[in-house]
User: Fold this.
Amino acid sequence: MAEIQLGIIMNGVTGRMGTNQHLIRSIVAIRKQGGVALPNGDVIMPDPILVGRSESKLRALAEAHGLSRVSTDLDECLADPYNVIYFDSQTTVLRAAALKKAIQAGKHIYTEKPIAETLEEATQLARLGREAGIKNGVVQDKLFLPGLIKLKRLIDSGFFGKILSVRLEFGYWVFEGDWQPGQRPSWNYRKEDGGGIIVDMFAHWRYVLDNLFGEVKSVSCLGVTHIDERIDENGRKYACTADDAAYATFEIEGGIVAQVNSSWAVRVDRDELVNIQVDGTHGSAVAGLRSCKTQHRVNTPKPVWNPDIPNPLQFREQWEEVPDNQVFDNGFKIQWEMFLKHVVADAPFPWDLLEGAKGTQLAELAIQSWQERRWIDIPELSL
Assistant:
């Protein structure tokens, strides 16, 4: 058995997502478990170098998790042949330029999304990656949520019969920063800094819809900036120039209609921050981050509209939980393990930069739909 040391440049890991999900719960967790085992008995051991602007923050983060390699010089890291993978979890406005530089340096690419601000940039990255012959992958974390794994189990079993519609509700109230600090960085609400819920979340909805239900064919979207002024991290007022809510309808192949509401200006009255209801001819399901419940047609109640009497049916009590039937590991970690195997052993990894570009495409066309107030068809994306 051989241990394969794999140098990984991790750029932007001092941010919340980069620190918690990608560093601590993925790479550090993989190191603690003894690496990633390959079928031939070899083990991949990731060896990250943390890259960013603040050396003190990087060193504190590295020391807290038993790591030694940090740098504020990305070019130097890219020039080192020991580092074979470049990972990016920076803000969206910085990502495309860094990914392009890493591709030109011959590094394999694994990145958060959106992969770029525009479809032109995104497809250019995918084309450059293909021409360079490097392995590349984009984080598609929500596919590995327990609730969505159970939902996919139902779809694959034929539980729904013919799927008719999907309704997705996502969001929560992000405090404005005046009487309580906001729980998201202020750049999210400035268009000029790459903010906006359409750019941020439609990359997720594209791969969720595509992978669970079928290819998204068209979109109608209305974006809104509900909160027009917020307080930033330094206590200063700033104008919100990006959309903080989006109300969209998608047409999916096979005649499925998906209604998707995304909002950072909504108070939650549901079990989880994301809720997906799927209705089919034979049954329905409601999935969240972890749970999934069903109602088959033989168990469907027969309500009658009568506003003159109290409702006699307890609708929420008439659904049945889908059991776990397995141990669910962290979704980010699972996908990291898949990508490491892809790089070292050429194991399958279908979510490449072209798949990431599809998310940018959907966001761009949704914004066009909003601006022009009309349905937009989504052309097939190719290089």
Q: What stands out?
A: The radius of gyration is 22 Å. The chain has a mean pLDDT of 96.
